[in-house]
Design brief:
Length: 394
C-alpha cells in the first residue's frame, strides 16, 4: 500500500500567498473607500442645492435681503461659535432639515457647508468642498452648478486683455489682478475707478483686504476664498507636469520667489508680469494654466480666523507644525494632504502673528523657500501692501 505524500507550504509560498491576499484586500478597501467618497460627495451636492433653493424661495428670487451672516459660518454646526444662527432660523420654514457635512466634527470647520452674506445683504456665498477635488459653489448670481472635473468655456476669456480660466468648479483669473486702462468700475463710495483685470497693461492692483473684496464685486465676481485656493492647490499638486525632477526627489514649481538656487524657483528681483518664466506656470488637471499662484505677489484670500502655530512670528515648515494648532479651520484646509511635504518640496510655510486673522497665501518674490502654493501668512493688519495682490473668482 502506497501512502500519499503530504504537501506542506514552504516559507516562500506562504509569503507569496500573503502578498496576494494583501494586494486583493488593498484593492477591495480602496474600492469601497471610493464608493463611500462618491456617496458623501453626492450628498454634499444635494444638500447644497437644497439650501440654495431654500434661499431662493426665502428671498423671493433675490428681491428680498438674505439672512445676515457677515462672517463665514458652518451650516448645521452644533457649537455656538461657528453656527449659522440667522441663516438656519430664516430657512427653518423652507427646508425640512438643516443639513451638515457628512464628515462634520463638532468644534471644527474642517468639513463644513460654509455660508456668508455681503454687507448689504443683497448677495451671499455658499459652498462645500468635495473629496473628489474642487468644490460646489453658489452665489446669488450662480445659474448652474459646475462640475469641478469639467472644463467650461463660458469664463468670458479675452486673451491678452482679461484672461480667465475654468478652475475646479469656478472661473478664476489666470493672472494676479491689475488695473484696467479706463475708470469703468465703481468703488464703495460710488467713485469711478479702474476695473480689476487679469493680464491687463496697467499697474498691479495693491489694495486692502476690504478694497480687494469691493474691487472683485465691482465686476460681478468675488475675492477668492480659502476653499477655492485649496481646490486649486490640491489640483495643481496632483499634476505631474508641475513637478521638477519628479515627486520623490523633486519639487513643485515655486515661481518668482527671489532665489535661483531653490529647485523650481527663480529670481526676477521684483514683481513679474504675465506669461514669461515657465517656472511661474502651473497646470490644472483639466488642461488650463494659472500663473504666479506661488511667489511673485502674495494674495488676499477671503477668510479670517486667528490661531497660532509656534513659534509665532516665524515661518514654520509644515512637517514641523503641530496639526492641533491650526484652529477651527483645521490643517486639512491649509496644508498639503501629505504632511511630510514641506518647503523642500516647494509647498511653502505658515507664519502666524499675534492677533493675525487675515489670510494671505502663496508667498511673494521676497519669501524664498517660505513661498509655495500652500504658503499662509496670517496678517493682523488688513491694509494694503506692495507685496500683496489678489485674484477674483466668478
Amino acid at each position: 500500500m502506497s501512502l500519499k505524500k503530504k504537501h506542506s507550504f514552504t516559507i516562500i509560498e506562504l509569503a507569496i500567498i500573503a502578498a496576494v491576499v494583501a494586494l486583493f484586500a488593498g484593492i477591495v478597501i480602496a474600492y469601497f473607500d471610493s464608493i463611500n467618497q462618491y456617496s458623501r460627495d453626492s450628498r454634499r451636492k444635494a444638500d447644497i442645492d437644497a439650501i440654495r433653493k431654500a434661499l431662493l424661495v426665502y428671498s423671493n428670487m433675490g428681491l428680498k435681503q438674505y439672512p445676515s451672516q457677515n462672517d463665514w459660518c458652518c451650516i448645521g454646526a452644533t457649537d455656538a461659535g461657528h453656527k449659522c444662527n440667522n441663516l438656519e432660523s430664516a430657512l427653518s420654514g423652507y427646508i425640512s432639515k438643516i443639513p451638515n457635512d457628512p464628515q462634520y466634527l463638532e468644534g471644527s470647520m474642517g468639513r463644513c457647508y460654509m455660508f456668508r452674506t455681503t454687507s448689504d445683504l443683497k448677495g451671499y456665498e455658499l459652498y462645500a468642498s468635495l473629496e473628489e477635488g474642487g468644490l460646489i459653489y453658489y452665489s446669488q448670481d450662480t445659474k448652474v452648478m459646475r462640475d469641478p472635473r469639467e472644463k467650461y468655456s463660458d469664463c468670458l476669456n479675452k486673451p491678452g486683455e482679461d484672461e480667465w480660466i475654468s478652475g475646479p468648479g469656478f472661473c478664476v483669473m489666470r493672472y494676479e489682478a491689475r488695473k484696467s486702462a479706463g475708470n469703468n468700475c465703481k468703488d464703495r463710495f460710488n467713485n469711478d475707478v479702474p476695473c480689476p483685470v487679469s493680464n491687463g497693461s496697467g499697474d498691479f492692483y495693491n489694495l486692502s483686504f476690504d478694497d480687494a473684496e469691493d474691487s472683485c464685486r465691482s465686476i460681478g465676481a468675488h475675492l477668492m476664498n480659502n476653499a477655492e485656493w485649496m481646490a486649486l492647490a490640491n489640483n495643481i499638486i496632483k499634476n505631474d507636469a508641475n513637478w521638477i525632477d519628479g515627486r520623490s526627489a523633486g519639487s513643485l514649481k515655486r515661481g518668482n520667489i527671489g532665489s535661483d538656487i531653490l529647485k523650481g524657483g527663480y529670481n526676477k528681483g521684483n514683481v513679474d508680469v504675465g506669461a514669461g518664466n515657465s517656472l511661474a506656470e502651473l497646470k490644472l488637471l483639466n488642461g488650463e494654466n494659472i500663473w504666479h499662484f506661488s511667489g511673485n505677489l502674495s494674495e488676499w484670500v477671503n477668510y479670517k480666523e486667528g490661531f497660532t502655530v509656534n513659534p509665532a512670528g516665524s515661518w514654520v515648515d509644515y512637517p514641523a507644525a503641530d496639526i492641533a494648532s491650526f484652529g477651527a479651520i483645521g490643517y486639512v484646509n491649509i496644508g498639503p494632504d501629505n504632511k511630510e511635504y514641506g518647503s523642500l518640496k516647494g509647498m511653502g510655510k505658515v507664519r502666524t502673528l499675534a492677533g493675525g486673522r487675515y489670510f494671505v497665501r502663496g508667498g511673494n518674490y521676497q519669501d524664498s523657500d517660505s513661498a509655495g502654493i500652500y504658503a499662509l501668512d496670517l496678517f493682523s493688519d488688513p491694509q494694503w501692501s506692495t507685496l500683496v495682490g489678489f485674484r477674483c473668482v466668478k
